[in-house]
From TrEMBL:
Residues 14-157 form the NAC domain. It comes from the Eukaryota. Pfam families: NAM (PF02365). SUPFAM superfamilies: NAC domain. This is NAC domain-containing protein 83. InterPro entries: NAC-dom, NAC_dom_sf. GO terms for molecular function: DNA binding. The keyword Transcription applies. Residues 195-224 are annotated as: Disordered. Keywords: DNA-binding, Nucleus, Transcription, Transcription regulation.
Length: 236
């Protein structure tokens, strides 16, 4: 059967209404394993790219979507197994433990999935970014003749909308949260620093109310004294 070629100038071009969204098992069994064993692929949809020769935003394809690449692992040291993942502007750093990819048909481990994060700058003082890479490697008895192929899925992690809204509000206020004051209180207090169950406004109103009640009582006492004085001085 003729293979379907959906790559044009190194960029994935799917027909309208189609989306490439394979599972981890499909990536390992249907694509990576076939690539390693030089077998026909279901579709020519994943290009061969050395992902460490370019920064993630410069790789082929739409950077707003997930991108998939066949790549070969470059050994960092001649006598070691550690991969060299340095790029022009930074490096890829592994995070967490590798995940086992288990076949749903045979229930055997067919591959491993490593998660990496891209850092700008030089290790170990690089600045973490939101670029993520999932690197899939094959576990099989058959070994590739010369090349050590891996399959890479690269995407830009999106921040939550609530966090973006908080950052936008802080930016509009010059980088600081708005400050609210209680002008009814005796001493002006920052409401943002008060406990949630406190009621600073009510305390200020209560204080003013008590003061007014005291004044009314004194005024009433003075009036009664004046009337009593008039009665005593009234002629017979």
């Amino acid at each position: 059967m003729e293979r379907l070629n959906l790559m044009r100038n190194g960029v994935l071009r799917l027909p309208p209404g189609f989306r490439f969204h394979p599972t981890d098992e499909e990536l390992v069994v249907q694509y990576l394993k076939r690539k390693v064993l030089s077998c026909p692929l279901p579709a020519s949809i994943i290009p061969e790219v050395d992902v460490c020769k370019s920064d993630p935003w410069d790789l082929p394809g739409d950077s707003d979507q997930e991108r998939y690449f066949f790549s070969t692992r470059e050994v960092k040291y001649p006598n070691g197994n550690r991969s060299n993942r340095a790029t022009g502007s930074g490096y890829w750093k592994a995070t967490g433990l590798d995940k086992q990819i288990v076949s749903s048909r045979t229930h055997q481990i067919v591959g491993m999935k490593k998660t990496l994060v891209f850092y700008r700058g030089k290790p170990p003082k690089g600045a973490r970014t939101d670029w993520i890479m999932h690197e899939y490697r094959l576990i099989t008895a058959e070994k590739p003749a010369q090349e050590n192929w891996v399959l890479c899925r690269i995407f830009l992690k999106r921040r939550s909308s609530s966090k973006n809204e908080e950052e936008a509000a802080a930016t509009e206020n010059g980088g600081a949260a708005p400050v609210f004051y209680d002008f009814m209180a005796k001493e002006r207090a920052d409401l943002n620093l008060l406990p949630a169950n406190s009621s600073s406004g009510s305390s200020g109103i209560t204080e003013i109310s008590n003061r007014n009640e005291s004044d009314d009582h004194e005024e009433s006492s003075s009036c009664n004294s004046f009337i009593a004085s008039l009665r005593r001085n009234k002629c017979p």
